[in-house]
Each structure stands twice: as structure tokens, then as C-alpha cells.
Amino acid sequence: MNDISIEQIRPELTWKLRREILYPEQTASEMQMDEDNDGYHFGVFQNNYIVAIISLFKRDDSWQFRKFAVEASVQGKGIGGKLLQYITDFVINEGGTKLWCNARLTAIPFYLKHDFVQKGEHFSKNGFDYEILEKDLSA
């Protein structure tokens, strides 16, 4: 996957892929979050198209990522892993000591493969089941 680039993007550039991958039953206008203007947003570009997105929010020295989506046609090709490593490096460079997410249960194996740890905290929201996973970056 050498033909990709990762760039910081405007929040509204995440909304199309958020809807397509994470919330196909919702409208495009429902993809905006109040927190969007307070976060960092990154997109993976392949042939000038956004094929993966993630939103990142700072809370003291802890950073949460949300709305991580990879276009179905490129899932399983390493793009999500590269994006996750990119934001991990970004958080480390910003002095962050922890990176965490509310992971859908179906995504847990992906995060475990990338050295995240299950915290055993489960919850349900909007019809989806989640568990909190985190990665210690203080070492």
C-alpha cells in the first residue's frame, strides 16, 4: 500500500465515510458531532479519494479516537493499521500517554493485534455493543 497518503482533514470530510461504513441507516446530516470542531481528523487518501478516516480528541494526556472507518473495498489491506499507527505517533509527539477508544465488539481483534488492551468495560449505545480498549504510550 505505497500509493496512500495520510493527511489531517476538515471534520466534514469524514462524514461521508462515517455514514457509509458505521451508520448506513442514518442520514448524512446526522454524521456531524458537536465535538468535531474540538478534534483532529485524519484521512487516508488513495488515488485522491478518502478511503479511511478517524477522529481524535485530547483529554489531558489521554487521547480518544472515534469514528474510525475504512472503506469496505480496502479493508484487510493494512490501511487501517497504518492509520492507527499514524495517530499513535501523532499522540506520542503531542505528549500523550494513553490512546483509547470505545470499540465495537466486532473490531476488538483488530485492536488487540495493534497492542491495545481490553479494559473489561462494556456498554451499548444506539444498537451497538462496545468495549473500552486502550494503549499505554508512556513507556
Account of the protein in words:
By secondary structure, the chain is of the alpha+beta class. The chain has a domain at 4-100: Gcn5-related N-acetyltransferase (GNAT) (Aminopeptidase, 3-Layer(aba) Sandwich). Helices cover 21% and strands 41% of the residues. It is built from three helices and seven strands. The protein has helices at residues 15-22, 79-93, 108-113; strands at 4-8, 40-46, 49-59, 62-70, 98-104, 117-125, 128-136. A seven-stranded mixed beta sheet has the order 1-2-3-4-5-7-6. Strand 3 and strand 4 form a beta hairpin. The longest helix has 15 residues, at 79-93. The termini are far apart. The mean pLDDT is 92.
> Helix share of residues?
10-25%
SS content category: alpha+beta
Question: Any idea what the radius of gyration is?
Answer: 14 Å
Q: How many H/I helices? A: 3
What characteristic shape results from the CA principal axes? globular
User: What is the CATH first-level class name of one domain?
Assistant: Alpha Beta
Uncertain residue segments = none
- At CATH level 3, the topology of one domain is Aminopeptidase
CATH superfamily of one domain: Gcn5-related N-acetyltransferase (GNAT)
CATH architecture of one domain: 3-Layer(aba) Sandwich
